[in-house]
């Protein structure tokens, strides 16, 4: 049914809703889901919980909401295909985070350019898990740029990919799975076994979107350097999907990311990302512009595919 209206048109509608409305200030669906997931984890992640309990918890958190979204689509289609199309757009709006990516990161650049390090540190602490209380301007700019590049895939392009494949329910499946990975996918004592399923499922769902994102970053930036960094640096990154996205993005911007970051008071040396000078505050805007251009590239491609599909159907 989604192809009857045009996937590209529905994607455009959902993105425009996000740009116009931004994330809900109250009753954000992902915030509510986070609370539900936290409750499920508390009830099921006991002392002897293993991978099986993690799989069951994932299913209890995600599948009922995916099935509910599908049921609502079917019910809406019973009354009107246009009502169903509108619901697809609303579901995409609820899952995508394009405008919020800008709203959470560009104020960091503003604070840094104004020399307000305490404000920049506070704002950066909202979007990353690394320590920020003693970070200088370059450290904070690097953290924000990395967040923009990685979350471009997690909050935008992965959602668009699964929406293109399965409509609103596909976007819901992906975004909820990605949220559970962010909550449960830690390799510590508490989540090593319980969070295994959440981490692996997110890896599977992100495999293709991450590489399409990396390709897009390379096409829209310093292509030669992006390809080179992807090929040589991504294999050394711990995450199989973040590696291609962030190495390609850093190369596309021709800046050096990765390397040292502090977590819980301990400095961790991570593989390098990109090549060139260190990140500066204005690179946050450059990273956002790369995500912005990639979004419209994807919309243009989906609209073109929809037109070709329609042409084939009418032939």
From TrEMBL:
Transmembrane segments: 71-96, 290-309
Single Gene Ontology MF annotation: threonine-phosphate decarboxylase activity
Pathway the protein takes part in: Cofactor biosynthesis; adenosylcobalamin biosynthesis
InterPro entries in UniProt: Cobalamin_biosynth_CobD/CbiB (IPR004485)
Keyword Hydrolase: no
Topology in the lipid bilayer: Multi-pass membrane protein
Keyword entries, A-Z: Cell membrane, Cobalamin biosynthesis, Membrane, Transmembrane, Transmembrane helix
Subcellular localization: Cell membrane
Biological process per Gene Ontology, one example term: cobalamin biosynthetic process
UniProt entry tagged with the keyword Cytoplasm: no
Coiled coil stretches, renumbered: none
GO cellular component, one term: plasma membrane
Principal location listed in the UniProt entry: membrane
NCBIfam families the record matches: cobal_cbiB
Family annotation (HAMAP family): CobD_CbiB
Role noted for this protein: Converts cobyric acid to cobinamide by the addition of aminopropanol on the F carboxylic group.
Family listed: Belongs to the CobD/CbiB family.
Protein name: Cobalamin biosynthesis protein CobD
